[in-house]
Amino acid sequence: MRKIRVVLEYRLGKRLSADQTSQALSVSKGSVINIGRRFKKSKLAWPLPTDLSDEALESALYPEPENQAEAAGQPDVAYIEKELSRPHVTLQRLYEEYSEQHPDGLKRTAFYDRVTKNRPPKVTMKVIHKGGDLVYSDYSGDGLEYIERSTGEVKPVDLFVCCWGASSFSYADGTESQKTPDYSTSHVRGFEYFGVSPFGVVLDNLKSGVQKPDRYEPTANPLFEKMLQHYGVAVLPARVRKPRDKAVVESAVLHIQRFILARLRNRQFFSLDEVNAAIREELEAFNNRPMKEYGGQTRRQRFEELDRPFARPLPQERFAISLVKFDVRVARNYHVRFADHHYSVPWHLAGKLVDVYRLGSTIEIYHGNLHLCRHQAGSSHFGYTTSKEHMPPNHAFVKGWSKEWFMAQAGEIGPATVEAVCTIMSAREHVQQGFNSALGVLRLAKAFTPKRLERACQRAVYFKAVNYRSIKAILDQHLDEQLLLMLNKPDEQPPVVHENIRGPNYYIAQ
Questions:
Q1: For 413, which DSSP code?
Q2: Distance CA 479, CA 471 (A)
Q3: Is the pLDDT of residue 282 over 90?
Q4: Which residue of 94, 102, 121, 344 has the fewest C-beta atoms within 10 A of its own C-beta?
């Protein structure tokens, strides 16, 4: 910063020489002489007017270039401001480009001073946090890892962090991933660690929390939103690319990285539970550490004073939903597909939309916010779980479809096709579950001709591989064109009689 006013006071007011002024103010002699010359050129009177500001004095001594030749060598601040808003562009890079265009232009320091002086100021607003109001959550870019004992595989662990706005009281844990179930469960554990829940959660636009970012009406992830509703918490996504909206948790993540990750960097873990136990131990030390800027108070003390008294109490029951899917359309066979398994609903809801939740090992299904039914979670991949009371009286969920109808259609192709279709439908707990597979087999006659389908079914029946995929594979690979050497089981051979063979009577107890 230039000491223009003081230099003029020493030179003109105290009548000191340039050498004396230079030594007294630790300013170079050349700068002292330059300021004197510029003052004479400015035609300002001495003593300076009392209402003359430092900015006005500097402008008088260092005016903007008047001719185009001088202006051509000056940096274009408007252009620089625009370029700095682009990704990966720095002021250093812009100075290098400026130097290439103007070799005799400003040096680096003068360039930086010029740009800094003329750039519009960037203002920030001090956010006043209300006690018990908001919790901020985010993932750390860095995490930990553990070694799977059985395989020796090194598995990464993501570090989840959330903290209160008023007290900065924090929670952290490790998760296998940043997917919605892990993300939601980390929040649940965080609320339980706090013993209370906030009125709102400010989060980054992670897909696990925000399904569709929008400045005005963001769409929350269904499971995450359901979890927050259980605790009476509003979801408040931060604006995209606006880290200051969640500056509290950004700071907390940095402090936890330096406090917890630095202390655990050389430790070896063999399970996620071991990782979280170590994190919890260091977290307690972090929250109980005195902070100089708050008079030696700890985060826990500030939490007990500022946030806990004004926060929401936790509900009596813990949030138990591990998966949720909204607006699932019921198929024509009155089943809904959820997590690669099919569950029945009352048959009259075929074609309607339902909501499906998983609570532990139980599947709950709702329609119009009314509870329809519950099932035990199915284990078989793409299997069916069907309740008899959900089926229509005539067991035909589409008019004209019945076991007899499919048998009649197969009879027009051949006896092997009839046997295959009957086997497919009989293999299911409810015959209606086999209708789609049976229909698929019959439609193969259009793609491969009825004659080939009959031979393929004959081969599938013989090898006891009767299902849609096997029959289609036989047709795709033209195995139906190969001759079956033995269409019937060989007759049983008579027993071998030999003097050295004891026979069954030998083993009868005497």
A1: T
A2: 10
A3: yes
A4: 121
Instruction: Check if the beta carbon of residue 343 is closer than 8 Å to that of residue 349.
Output: no
**Rounded to whole angstroms, how far apart are CA atoms 447 and 344?**
32
Over the Cα atoms of the chain, what is R_g? 40
> Rounded distance, CA 368 to CA 372, Å?
10
Indicate if 279 and 356 belong to the same structural domain: no
d(CA 448, CA 451): 8
User: For 156-193, what is each residue's pLDDT tens digit?
Assistant: 999 999 989 888 899 999 999 988 889 999 999 999 99
Average confidence (pLDDT) over 260-275: 91
Q: Which residues pair with 328 in a beta bridge?
A: 354
pTM: 0.54
146: domain CATH number? 3.30.420.10
Domain of 502, in residue numbers: 394-510
Least confident range from 105-114, 275-284, 494-503: namely 494-503
DSSP three-state, residue 212: strand
Q: Judge whether 124 lies within some domain.
A: no
Question: Residue 139: inside a domain, yes or no?
Answer: yes
Question: Based on the structure, what is the number of domains in the chain?
Answer: 4
pLDDT at 67: 47
Is 206 part of any domain? yes
User: Is the model's pLDDT at 335 over the cut of 70?
Assistant: yes
Supply the DSSP string of 354-389, one letter for each residue.
EEEEEETTEEEEEETTEEEEEEEPP-STT-EE--GG
Quickly list H helices, 62-211: 68-71, 77-84, 91-101, 108-118, 180-194
Please identify which residue in the block is written with the tokens 């909206």: 245
Q: Are residues 193 and 217 in the same domain?
A: yes
Do the Cβ atoms of 344 and 376 come closer than 8 Å?
A: no
Region at 311 (left for phi over 0; alpha for psi -120 to 50; beta for the rest): beta
Is residue 129 in a domain? Answer: no
- Ramachandran sector of residue 20 (left: φ over 0; alpha: ψ -120 to 50; beta: rest): alpha
Burial label for 508, CB within 10 Å (0-12, 13-18, 19+), is exposed
Same domain, 112 and 35: yes
Residue 246 · residue 223 · CB < 8 Å: no
Lowest mean pLDDT: which of 96-110, 117-131, 295-309? 117-131
- In this structure, the answer to whether residues 429 and 479 fall within a common structural domain is yes
- 294 with 154, same domain? yes
